[in-house]
Amino acid sequence: MKASEKRHDVPVSAATNTPPSPVTVPSPPARRTPPATWRDPRLVVGIVIVAVSVLFGAQLFARADDTVAVWAVRSDLPGGTAVGADDLERREIRFGDAVQADLYVSASSPVPVGSTLVHDVGAGELLPRAALGDAGAAALVEVPVAVPSESVPATVRAGSVVDVWVTPDGPGTAQAESVQVFDDVVVVAAPRSGSALGPSATRQVIVGVDGEQENGLAEALARAATGTIVITRQG
């Protein structure tokens, strides 16, 4: 072999400057969030809370305007006064129920011409339906009745229409029947406070007796003095 043909073996790593190949790291597998379902209790509880909140808010909004317009008296008016538009003012009142609201004169229309008070109504008071009558019904006799507190319905108030009964007391009256002494009379006043007279507290209820029943007033009072008074209210 000739000198010019001699080969020089050179290491491959020294003959090239090629960098080493980068190491490839595999990506982690993708994780998918499972879709929400109606069976998820958290979702159900959230929907219930929202529904209850909306319903409660709607009820409060409805009740905020649940008022009834009724007439009120501007100044003190004695029984027998002919009621006119100048004597009244409109009031918006929120009553507990329709029965209570119906006790007072609605302001949806004027008071009928010729209406006259059958008993006194104070300034600022709502005008009871039972306080209105015609000129011929204005003259009422006010009769005080002492009644045991438990014998007066809790709903009785001025303007209520009631019946007054008496149950005889004393020996031999155990089987005696109660007797009605006043029929369909208007309550003029019914103070809440009672006074301790005897074994039980009593209330004084003042009723207005019209001319027809006034003729039998003496007999009615005599019967009332012989027993225990009970007042019943018409619904």
Question: How would you summarize the topology of this molecule?
Answer:
Elements: H1 12-15, H2 41-64, E1 68-73, E2 88-93, H3 98-101, E3 116-117, E4 132-133, E5 141-148, E6 161-168, E7 179-189, E8 195-197, E9 200-209, H4 211-214, H5 217-224, E10 227-233
Shape from CA axes? elongated
Give a count of the beta strands, DSSP E runs of length 2 or more: 10
The structure class reads alpha+beta
Low-confidence stretches: 194-199
Tell me roughly what share of residues is in helical segments. 10-25%
How far apart lie the N and C ends?
141 Å
Q: Largest sheet, if any?
A: 6 strands, antiparallel
Question: Would you kindly provide a written description of the structure presented here, covering whatever features stand out?
Answer:
- This protein is α+β, with helices and mostly antiparallel strands and 235 residues long.
- Helix content is 19%, strand content 27%.
- The protein is built from 5 helices and 10 strands.
- The protein has helices spanning 12-15, 41-64, 98-101, 211-214, 217-224; strands spanning 68-73, 88-93, 116-117, 132-133, 141-148, 161-168, 179-189, 195-197, 200-209, 227-233.
- The strands form 3 sheets. Strands 5, 6, 7, 8, 9 and 10 form a 6-stranded antiparallel sheet that branches. It has a two-stranded antiparallel ribbon with strand order 1-2. It has a two-stranded antiparallel sheet with strand order 3-4.
- The termini are far apart.
